[in-house]
Structure formats: C-alpha cells, structure tokens
Amino acid sequence: MLNDIYNKRIIELAGNIPRLGRLPDPDATATAHSKLCGSTVKVDLKMEGEKVTDFAHDVKACALGQASSSIMASQIVGSTASELRELRETVRKMLKENGAPPEGKWEEIKFLEPVRDYKARHASTLLTFDAVVDAIGQIEAKAKQPAAAQG
C-alpha cells in the first residue's frame, strides 16, 4: 500500500529538512531532476580534499525526495567522496535489487526501504544521491584540470 512508503518517519524527515538554501561560494553545484514526477534537487557542495566541509540544497520534491534530502543534509558534512559514491550505490541496490539499507550514520535510509515496491518513486528518492555524486565529480574534475594544463 502507498501508505507504507509515506510512514510517520518519512513525513517527519520531509517536514524538517536541514541546510536548505544555497551556499555563497560552492566548489560545485549539481541538479538532479525526475522527468516522471517533476521533482528537482539542486545541491551546493564544498570539499577539502576527500571530505565534504559544507552543503546546502534547494529541494522541490515530493515527500520521498524531501526525506532522502533531509537524511543527506543531516549526515553529509564530514563524509568522504568514496563514502558518498558507495552510499548512492547502496541506496540504488536497496531500491532496485532488494539490497539491504545502509547502516551506521546513514541507517535512517531504512525508512525509505518500502519505496522499492513502487518503481515510479525510485527516481525522486535517488535525486539527492545523484546530485551529490555529480557535484563530487565536478570538484574532482576541476582539481585535475590545473595538473593536466601544466603537464
């Protein structure tokens, strides 16, 4: 039933999204959009080396996109690029391949597990993860450019 995916914790997360807005000088900005439902998440990211030092986002999404964005915003600062790439893959597998939800600081993602039965909702749930990984890729590409230009 659709009520399973809009459980009490999903509604609480969606209603209390931290780090809303934009960063004044992000290292990268990325947008992820779901054509199916129209949800959009735009993230601003700052990193030092492998670690995220600041994050903000503009979330125009359904309750599922809002809830996953809320979880991301509450845990992302201090996370590494590899951790965040692995997280996106874990969430994708949780939704599409019956994989287990992440554990540790990301364990609240377990509340999104019922979404697996609703393929039309996968894209909006994954938006924040896709946008963050895109922003990380942009930052890494920029970091490589000066070295390539010098060589």
UniProtKB/TrEMBL annotation:
Superkingdom is: Bacteria
Q: Which Pfam families match?
A: NifU_N
InterPro entries per record? NIF_FeS_clus_asmbl_NifU_N
Span of domain NIF system FeS cluster assembly NifU N-terminal: 6-97
Q: What name appears for this protein in its UniProt entry?
A: Iron-sulfur cluster assembly scaffold protein
The species is: Bradyrhizobium canariense
